[in-house]
Specification:
Fe-only Hydrogenase (Larger Subunit), Chain L, domain 3; about 400 residues; binds iron/sulfur cluster; 16 helices; single chain; alpha/beta
Length: about 400
């Protein structure tokens, strides 16, 4: 019997290998239970993780990247998301004290000329979004809803919620800007630059379609195929640091990969901007507990209490009255990007242990950063000093915000 399946007409992020499909209907059931959006696919990729035969896969771009890596006419730059990093560490069975350095070494061995951290882009998102929140707080124009997840943004537009969504660019768009525009002030890219983002997410492939700054998004799964096809001997790969200028992220930028991370980072920076002192709030593992899909909190901002909500999946979002909150983080994937549709299949959303392990590993990566808050980042300070001017200013609005 043929069960109803999800359909992907002209989908730039996901494809189905028809000969592998057994018409079991699991993809449709997954979509209904997580997003409940009927035929309006938001490209979260959760159905990919649930497909029992591997018939659903991301649209692949990795062969194109392999071709570029073999062509000496190009400079290849890649920026890696923290959520992709924690998956790779497990999939490649990396046991070093600092697995991130080993993954950077693998990317260099593959032939990437420069390797950066998307979490620096996330630090920039934090500063701009916190500035926007403080400004909206003063005008009582709330709630402000986060803008990092393109699947959620698509849902917001289709459901009349886009007026609440922050105009601040997402971390990969920030990173794309930094690499194509800011870095060229310091580095002479004498060959044509190909700017690649390594993400746990399939939806980001659509997000960059109109971008002048980003050329390709590849998923964590695609990178594993690249490593496999390149026959790299992992034992002989050296540990490497991220390259300078946009390679050192704060803990705040790194925790974007788990549900609650964006919210915590923006709350802390907004508190600092408003009160000129740091907030006593730890990013502890309970605070960012990945198991719960919806968590509310209150923060004393001095002259008023800020009510926040972090929520993942559209079905969970539908249960809440957004007007009860001042600041809301929304992620389409259950538990956030660590459970994104571009992650390896062992990262299935049905495997809660795997999700919690990755959230835990992400906290370890965040704790290894020497700097805690985005407003303490020397890299971000320099971006404002040498390029943007002041957070939320005219230049920032033009370069770091959508619209
Ligand atoms: S879950 Fe996979 S195998 Fe089952 S109907 Fe969907 S695409 Fe086909
Ligand atoms: S990608 Fe997400 S929204 Fe689209 S069909 Fe799959 S589960 Fe549903
Ligand atoms: S939660 Fe993260 S991985 Fe999932 S769709 Fe949104 S941005 Fe992509």
């Amino acid at each position: 019997m043929k069960n109803e399946r999800v359909e992907f007409l002209d989908n730039p992020c996901i494809q189905r290998i028809e000969e592998k499909c057994i018409h079991c209907g699991v993809c449709k059931k997954t979509c209904d239970s997580i997003q409940g959006i009927g035929p309006n696919c938001i490209k979260c990729g959760q159905c990919i993780l649930s497909c029992p035969t591997g018939a659903l896969v991301p649209k692949y771009d990795y062969q194109t990247i392999l071709n570029y890596l073999n062509d000496t006419d190009y400079t290849l730059v890649i920026s890696m998301a923290p959520a992709a990093r924690v998956s790779l560490t497990k999939e490649l069975n990396i046991k070093n004290d600092n697995p991130t350095k080993k993954v950077v070494g693998i990317l260099k061995r593959l032939g990437f000329d420069y390797v950066y951290d998307v979490a620096v882009g996330a630090d920039l998102t934090t500063i701009e979004e916190a500035t926007e929140f403080v400004e909206r707080l003063e005008r009582n124009n709330l709630p402000l809803m986060t803008s990092c997840c393109p699947s959620w943004k698509k849902y917001a537009i289709e459901n009349g919620l886009d007026k609440y969504v922050s105009s601040t660019k997402s971390p990969i768009k920030m990173q794309g800007y930094l690499i194509k525009n800011y870095l060229s002030k310091f580095i002479n890219f004498d060959k044509k630059l190909i700017n690649v983002m390594l993400m746990p997410c399939v939806s980001k492939k659509e997000e960059i379609i109109d971008s002048d700054d980003i050329d390709y998004v590849i998923t964590t799964r695609e990178l594993l195929y690249m490593i496999n096809e390149s026959k790299i001997d992992l034992e002989t790969v050296c540990e490497c640091e991220f390259d300078d200028l946009v390679g050192k992220a704060t803990s705040s930028g790194i925790i974007y990969g788990t549900s609650g991370g964006v919210l915590s980072s923006v709350v802390r920076s907004a508190y600092y901007l408003k009160n000129h002192k740091e907030m006593i709030l730890n990013y502890d593992r309970n605070n960012l507990n990945n198991e719960q899909l919806s968590v509310e909190n209150e923060y004393d901002f001095g002259d008023r209490v800020i009510k926040t909500l972090r929520v993942s999946t559209m079905n969970e979002l539908k249960k809440v009255d957004i007007h009860n909150y001042d600041l809301i983080e929304v992620m389409a994937c259950p538990g956030g990007c660590i459970n994104g549709g571009g992650q390896p299949l062992s990262a299935s959303g049905s495997n809660m242990d795997d999700r919690l392990r990755k959230a835990n590993d992400l906290m370890d990566v965040a704790n290894s950063s020497k700097v805690f808050d985005s407003f303490r980042s020397e890299e971000i300070d320099n971006v404002y000093k040498y390029d943007i001017g002041i957070p939320g200013g005219k230049n920032a609005q033009k370069k770091l915000h959508d619209n």
